Amino acid sequence: MTSTKRVGFSSKIGGLLAAAGSAIGLGNIWRFPTQCGENGGSAFLLVYFLIIVSFGIPLLIAEFSIGRHSRANVGNAYSVLAPNSLWKFVGIGSVAVATVILCYYNVVVGWVLYYAWDSVTGTFNDLAAIQATAEAGKDVFTDHFVGFISNPWKPILALFIVLAIIHGIIVCGVQKGIERSSKLLVPALFVIMIMLVIFAATMPGANEAYSFLFKPDFEAIKNPDVWLAALGQCFYSFSLGMGIVTYASYFRSEVNLSRTALSVAGLDTLVALMAGLIIFPAVFSVSGVEPSAGAGLVFISLPNVFHSALHTMPFFNWIIPSAFYLILLVAAITSCIFLHEVGTAFIAEKANMSRKTAALVVTLGTFVIGIAASLSYGPWDVKVFFGMNFFDFLDFFTAQIILPLTGLGAALFVGYRMQRSQLIQELTSNGAHKFTLVGPFLILLKFIIPILIIFIMVTQLFGIKFG
């Protein structure tokens, strides 16, 4: 085997954009508006900001500290800092959860790619024309989506294309692949989103959307389900427990970890907020569409919404949906790059394997499992895993069982096992920066954050609702 020389990000901005790209994904542009719509808009937004400060940023700093001090991928980091201990299973679990999520997440990214193609080629206009003459009760846009995901080969072809793009970036390495693509994709994402936000402000439903998002609803804040939804969104959106330790191990020694965590949280939240400022004005401009339409909002409701709101402006009726699905695709790919790197770095360093070979192992493995996940909405749609098909089981197993445990492990490790001197060394970048909140930071990691994670896990696992 060929030994792999470990390199890191060449610049602070490269590391920041890569870390931001790992967090920015479908969870921001798809899940956040859905959660916001289902949980009272402004009430959810206010609670979400509080959760970010007290939960998301501290846990992100903790994982950054583990990664940079160990200078190892997440699968090996805990063994480096706590040799011959059971803590190693937290790291291995993080590799497993990132890799399994990649398997089915790529399937959804394939759907986004297909819809991006549909928007560019004008398919949505054709569907709208068919819908206008369809019999009562027939939903052409729903039929189009269901027909695509249940097709035995189209989603697999889209999956293959997505994986080929990600594989090409990963094999180029940390600096020439991950860092360079992040410097291109993340700024491009923001530029396109800003243009879409500006255009959305001109739509008839903009004022109603802004009221929905920003007018405080203090009664809804009292609902525990709103807090639970905000906790879950923050946990999954920030890539906590998924192996962000690996990216942190590439950070330069002078990088201010707390400032980087703040920046990542800010960029991640800004993308989510801008997604709401794009989607809700469109939704409120068309009667009969609810902002709480759920996941179907992106693949079923929005294509129809865009057409209904923009059909009198042919150019915008083409460019706005195309730009929207482009940003969705870019955000999804940056997340996939991160998830792929977690597995690639672990295999390369653990097995002393070349990066190209390790990347090929991850790509082929996720492609095979991804095919099975894709077909579970088509020919293999059999509910054999606790009443779930294969795709839904992968999602359930990772998101509601393993992921909370790895996030919990990271918090407890930094709170109880990592040496205080090591932690302070990372928090201050060897004394180059000040970090005056070590005491409160450790209290959060030892007590508050573990309780919140267990709360998330139990309530989601058993479907507990308080409203």
From TrEMBL:
Places the protein is found: Membrane
SUPFAM superfamilies: SNF-like
Primary location class: membrane
GO annotations of cellular component type: membrane
Membrane-spanning ranges: 12-30, 42-66, 86-117, 156-174, 186-206, 226-250, 262-284, 315-339, 359-377, 397-416, 437-462
Keyword Heme attributed: no
Membrane-related topology note: Multi-pass membrane protein
A Pfam family reported for this protein in Swiss-Prot or TrEMBL: SNF
Keyword entries, A-Z: Membrane, Transmembrane, Transmembrane helix, Transport
NCBIfam families: Na_transp
PANTHER family: TRANSPORTER (PTHR42948)
Name of the protein: Neurotransmitter:Na+ symporter, NSS family
Organism: Succinivibrio dextrinosolvens
Lineage: Bacteria, Pseudomonadati, Pseudomonadota, Gammaproteobacteria, Aeromonadales
